[in-house]
């Protein structure tokens, strides 16, 4: 926790953890203000978790969430009112401290504190407030004063898709000026979290510093994006700064909407409620699996689209396999509650999966969408949809529940001119170029092509986007086309995987000969691929522009 002082009564920082609250209390903090909306990051505790810790420490706590780069005057006024009403020192936090500092700067504009003092204190704390200086001073500012730099390619997002695309671009043309925009300090290998939740991987093996992964020759702009301005070929960053581009690649990932399920944020990580979709919760999944010796275990899947659509049932299979090996499965009642109507979207893989469903005695409950959780009472509520279009709410008790939250595009994408009606970046599904802006592309979870949202899909998409960006810039011959490839290694037991590989329309697209790995049947070799080969392929090939089994076919055009 890197605490920065803005004045005698206010400190700010990036995201805090529940265990940090006692430290703040010992420093004399009497009031906490959270300026970060829940669900922004995969390693982010929810406000309810911080609130519980603050109440236990006798600290007042307030939730004033702000969308990054979009601080309003009303929010600043409310922030100022909270500061004035506080009974002692205040600590505010967001992702980096930038939003909290911006709120403070805007709320101090009419306090008699000079603009120079506000800017100086913010700078000494490590925050550049030049972008909001005009608002603080109530005077105009020119576009030129807000600009940072200009690049051939600006990539929004430093996840698997963004870094892989940057690496593929630089491998093809090292003369390109490329920037990755992302505020995160840590990059996660999210496909590994299923194994963390099964006690196979340790959490630390799935995390590396962002700085260690940015490709050589690529600039890292460590900031959050507030908005897109395609008319001016610019990205608006937090603090209202502009970043110019010739071409833009949007790889902003996906938002986990934990708040969409009533009561969930109040009980995550305790009361038997867990999820492998968050870095800090996957170890709790394994803890629950080890400790649960009898009772009812529920595994849920929300409406599509979600990232890694097989992950909800992977958690069930690996948990059941452990209970079976420990002789506990006969004392367990296992239920899979899927908001959709099928176990898996590609029918060829369903027979093998059903054999494991039957082996583990798991009850399949389709058209059941989780809407509420009461952790202390160990109850969950689902909306069950019938074939006649009618629906009803059903209640289930549990001893353990693995929850997958509904998912959507990040807020700044959903509110932008790049989004379709559902909020995803609107692209041509083959070229991955935006349907309305000729110098914008998108890949990964954030775009609307009808493919599975998996890291394997991003690995195939990155070279396609890299080639097509260069083609637009006149530096490559021919266009590349994406065939919708996605892969889902369905871990049906410890040591065996059903390796689902498919493209648009559910067409099977196996990477290996059938005699080596028959993807429609469980395979030990596929497990070896998942456990031992895919992590180094991810870290050392995909994120470094090595396109093993991913180089696209180029057509004239």
Provide a quick synopsis of the model:
With 557 residues, this protein is an alpha/beta fold. The protein contains 15 helices and 28 strands.
Task: Explain how this protein is built.
It is a single chain. The chain has 557 residues and is α/β, with parallel strands linked by helices. Strands 6, 7, 10, 11, 12, 13 and 24 form a seven-stranded mixed sheet that branches. Helix 3 crosses helix 4 and helix 8 crosses helix 14 (455-472). It is globular.
Q: What are the SSEs and their pairings?
A:
Blueprint lengths: L3 E4 L2 E4 L7 H6 L4 E4 L12 H11 L2 E4 L9 H13 L4 E4 L4 H11 L6 H10 L8 H5 L5 H4 E10 L3 H13 L5 E4 L4 E3 L4 H4 L10 E3 L8 E4 L3 E5 L4 E4 L3 E10 L4 E2 L16 E2 L7 H10 L3 E7 L9 H15 L6 E7 L11 H11 L2 E4 L1 E7 L4 E7 L5 E7 L2 E3 L4 E2 L2 H4 L25 E3 L12 H18 L6 E2 L5 E8 L2 E7 L21 H18 L12 E2 L2
Parallel strand pairs: 2-5, 3-4, 3-5, 6-7, 6-13, 7-10, 13-24, 15-22, 16-17, 16-22, 17-18
Antiparallel strand pairs: 1-2, 8-9, 11-12, 12-13, 14-23, 19-20, 20-21, 25-28, 26-27
Helix pairs in contact: 3-4, 8-14
């Amino acid at each position: 926790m890197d605490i920065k002082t803005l004045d005698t009564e206010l400190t700010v920082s990036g995201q805090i953890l529940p265990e940090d609250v006692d430290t703040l209390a010992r420093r004399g903090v009497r009031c906490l203000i959270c300026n970060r909306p829940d669900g922004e990051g995969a390693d982010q505790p929810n406000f309810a978790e911080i609130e519980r810790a603050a109440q236990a420490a006798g600290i007042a706590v307030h939730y004033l969430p702000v969308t990054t780069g979009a601080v309003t005057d009303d929010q600043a006024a409310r922030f100022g009112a909270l500061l004035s009403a506080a009974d002692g020192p205040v600590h505010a936090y967001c992702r980096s401290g930038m939003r909290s500092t911006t709120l403070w700067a805007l709320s101090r504009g009419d306090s008699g504190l000079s603009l120079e003092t506000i800017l100086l204190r913010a700078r000494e704390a490590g925050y550049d407030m030049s972008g909001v200086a005009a608002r603080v001073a109530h005077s105009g500012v020119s576009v030129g004063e807000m600009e940072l730099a200009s690049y051939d390619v600006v990539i929004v997002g430093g996840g698997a898709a963004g870094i892989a695309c940057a690496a593929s671009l630089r491998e093809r043309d090292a003369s390109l000026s490329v920037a990755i925009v992302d505020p995160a300090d840590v990059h996660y290998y999210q496909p590994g979290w299923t194994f963390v939740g099964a006690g196979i991987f340790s959490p630390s093996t799935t995390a590396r510093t962002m700085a260690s992964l940015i490709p050589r020759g690529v600039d890292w702009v460590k900031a959050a994006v507030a908005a897109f301005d395609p008319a001016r070929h610019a990205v608006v960053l937090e603090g209202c700064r502009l970043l110019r581009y010739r071409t833009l690649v949007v790889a902003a990932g996906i938002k986990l909407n934990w708040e969409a399920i009533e009561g969930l944020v109040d009980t995550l990580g305790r009361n038997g409620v867990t999820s492998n979709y968050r870095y800090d919760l996957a170890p709790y999944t394994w803890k629950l699996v080890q400790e649960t010796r009898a009772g009812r275990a529920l595994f849920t899947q929300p409406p599509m689209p979600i990232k890694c659509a097989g992950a909800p049932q992977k958690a069930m299979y690996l948990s059941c396999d452990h209970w079976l090996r420990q002789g506990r499965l006969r004392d367990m009642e296992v239920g899979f509650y899927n908001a959709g109507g099928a176990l898996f979207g590609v029918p060829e893989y369903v027979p093998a999966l059903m054999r494991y469903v039957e082996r583990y005695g798991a009850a399949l409950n389709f058209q059941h969408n989780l809407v509420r959780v009461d952790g202390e009472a160990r109850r969950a509520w689902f909306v069950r949809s019938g074939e006649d279009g009618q629906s009803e709410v059903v209640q289930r008790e549990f001893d353990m529940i693995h929850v997958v939250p509904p998912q959507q595009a990040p807020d700044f994408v959903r509110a932008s001119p790049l989004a379709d009606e559902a909020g995803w970046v609107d692209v041509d599904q083959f070229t991955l170029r935006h349907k309305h802006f000729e110098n914008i592309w998108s890949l990964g979870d954030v775009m609307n092509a009808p493919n599975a949202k998996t890291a394997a899909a991003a690995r195939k998409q990155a070279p396609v986007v890299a080639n097509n960006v260069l083609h637009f810039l006149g530096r490559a011959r021919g266009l590349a086309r994406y065939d919708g490839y996605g892969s889902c290694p369905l871990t049906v037991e410890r040591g065996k995987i059903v390796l689902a590989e498919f493209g648009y329309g559910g067409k099977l697209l196996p990477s290996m000969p059938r005699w080596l790995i028959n993807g429609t049947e469980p395979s030990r070799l596929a497990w070896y691929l998942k456990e031992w080969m895919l992590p180094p392929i991810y870290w050392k090939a995909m994120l470094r522009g090595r396109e093993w089994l991913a180089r696209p076919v180029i057509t004239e055009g």
